[in-house]
Input
Amino acid sequence: MISGDNEIKLKAIAVLTGLRSGVGSDYVSGLCGEVTPSTFLVPAGADPTEVARAMLDQLSGPWSELVNGFVLAFEAVADAYDEESGREGAAQEILQHIALELAEQSD
Output
């Protein structure tokens, strides 16, 4: 049986795989929606700050696991790319290039 955390990480990998294979954004949104709680428990009589904190606490776990799944997948792909290219750090070079492009666009 798959643990809840691993199930969420698998959804992250499915999102990335889906995006690479050209599935629609509805599919990706649906997978992301599956990790978001549909209901939240909040203390009775809570003020708006307490409601927000309770919701954030309940969102942070699954969304952290989703991010962990993206990171796990990226590391595996980056390691494979570095190995295939024969250049350690090749994936980091690509990331640095993307970061520079984004920085230039924001100016």
Observations:
- The first helix runs from residue 4 to 21.
- The helical segments are 4-21, 25-34, 48-85, 90-106.
